[in-house]
Amino acid sequence: MNNNRSSFTLIELLVVIAILGILASLLLPTLGKARQKAKRSVCASQQKSIALAIFNYQDDNADYYPPADEFNVTNHSWDDKISTYLSRNWTAAQMSQKKHLTSNSSGGEALFRCASDSYESPSGFARRSYAMIRGSIWDSKSSTVGDWTGVAWDHGSRTASSVEDFSGTAILSEYPSPGNWIGHPSNYAHLRKPSDQLSEDKGLHGDSKNNFLFSDGHVQNIHVYSNIGAGTPAIPEGMWTHWKDD
């Protein structure tokens, strides 16, 4: 009689399934972290590309950062202002439409939508995951009324040469809100304070962390409250202002 077994017993199958389940439980968190890290890297790369367009804009506009938005004037937003440097070549009338005309071009969602941004925009609009840093209080050191502590605000901006801490001043960060879309001049085109940022997305990359683009072109993934200097989450200083040692 041949007693060689050609199949597993039920117990053996259950043991194999249990082992596979344990391995999966060990591997899935690691794979999830790897995917999250990859998305974070893609978003950082997008911000660096945006930085190059901003720097080109400064070269042609007396060293000024693009204003965050010009609502009810030209109705242009900061991404409209740098569109020429992203092969979008829009007319002023097209920029005034408050939305982006194509969603997947190199100057569209392929650049302005972070891979971790899960919000959807209304039909005809394209996602924008980023906003210029405005700061939250009037610039008490400035002689110009209407200047804010950041680099860009509604209807205005400052020059790069006025930034005292070039490597420590943030100029752009992630602000994935349902109302933030390409070409739209609104409060979502600029960031006032980190508490606003967290109220919208809880940190795109986990643990209340977002990517920040700094004036010198480097991108850093940090907790939004980690660099507010002597300020508070509601009135931040540190990287949220153009000052040094605040």
UniProtKB/TrEMBL annotation:
The keyword DNA-binding does not apply. Keywords: Membrane, Methylation, Transmembrane, Transmembrane helix. It holds the Pfam family SBP_bac_10. Residues 33-145 form the DUF1559 domain. InterPro entries: Bac_GSPG_pilin (IPR000983), DUF1559 (IPR011453), N_methyl_site (IPR012902), Pilin-like (IPR045584). The chain crosses the membrane at residues 6-31. Coiled coil: none annotated. This is Type II secretion system protein.
